[in-house]
Amino acid sequence: MEFAGSYWWLVFPLFGMTMAAVGRISKQREVAARRRHREQLELIRVQGGGVVASTPAPPAAVPAVGDDLARVQARHDDVTHRWLDYELDVAKLISYPAMSDGRQPLTAAFLRAKKVADTLRPTAGETPTPERLKEYRDAVTDYEVAFELAERDARRVKTAAFTPEERKRLETAQQLLGVAVDQAATPNERQVAYRRVRQELDGLIWLSDDAVENLEKKVALELPSAAPPEPAV
Length: 233
Description:
The chain is mainly alpha-helical and 233 residues long. Helices cover 68% and strands 0% of the residues. The protein contains nine helices and no strands. It starts with a helix and ends in a 14-residue tail after the last helix. The model is unreliable at 48-55 (pLDDT under 50).
């Protein structure tokens, strides 16, 4: 008792040493348990016991090159069809002549982008490399953007680039065009109106061969023929 009374202060360091020892033992047990757990997981994998919860999920499937190519080609075709709506429709060309005028900077940029996209487009049955597909995809994106800019500008300026006399000729051509494709007009009226349209547009708007052919088909439509007379009894 005298010893305990004299050295009572030793209780605190002895207690700390005891707790530290307990902590080390717990830590060692925890490390050993983790090691056994990893060994058990590895054993399960080796034995083919199935995928454990800690196994990472497989990466998401990458779209096939063919599917990606088809989507890019669909975008390419969509822009081309929108452009052909102007290229083949004389009425639209008269309203928005900048869409056929390669001297306009935005139209010229669009036509260049179209040429690049058309050149990079894979041929039928061709499977491009990922690098080639990316190059084609980027070209189609440039093609889309260039068309949007050219169309927006053409709808903004309309016929502003023409002189008052030239704008009057365009207005006359637009009116005559309505007669040329009017099924209620006679074939002769259509032909006369068609020739006048070509005269008014000469030197103002260039019409492609496809646009001329498309217009001539509309002009050549015959009026519904009258019912044949009934035979005499």
